[in-house]
Amino acid sequence: MNKNQQLTPPKFTIHQFVCFIGGVGTILDFQVDANTWKYAVEMEKGPEPVMGRIGSETTILLHEMDIHGVIS
Questions:
Q1: Closest alpha carbon to 44 in 30, 60, 31, 29
Q2: DSSP at 9
Q3: 15 and 25 Cβ atoms separated by less than 8 Å
Q4: pTM score, two decimals?
Q5: Which residues make Cβ contacts (< 8 Å) with residue 16, sequence separation at least 6?
Q6: How far apart are CA 68 and CA 1, in angstroms?
Q7: Which of 1, 51, 28 is CA-nearest to residue 62?
Q8: What pLDDT does 9 receive?
Q9: From CA 41, how far away is CA 18, in angstroms rounded?
Q10: How far is it, in rounded angstroms, from Cα 63 to Cα 11?
């Protein structure tokens, strides 16, 4: 980023519940990436399988433009 470009403030904050193509989730963290914001989003848990849960839920990285908006 050069001196004339300014990064806009992030549109989303930690703990917001957001939607995106493929699902919904909660923002865990965010950071600057290639002049935009990149968010770590923990996807919402589905129903527990018969055999129980094996590990942590899925966390994905999404750029700001990939997040459609906040769910109330």
A1: 60
A2: P
A3: no
A4: 0.79
A5: 26, 27, 70
A6: 25
A7: 28
A8: 95
A9: 8
A10: 11
Token pair 């769910």 is at which residue?
A: 71
Distance, CA of 49 to CA of 61 (rounded, Å): 25
Of 18-27, 30-39, 41-50, the one with minimum mean pLDDT is: 41-50
Phi, psi of 44 (to 5 degrees): -65, 140
pLDDT, one tens digit per residue, over 39-69 is: 999 988 777 778 776 666 689 999 999 999 9
* One-letter amino acid of 19: C
Residue 4, pLDDT score: 54
Instruction: Write out the two tokens for 51.
Output: 């055999």
Report the residue count for the chain.
72
Q: Is 39 left (phi over 0), alpha (psi -120 to 50) or beta?
A: beta
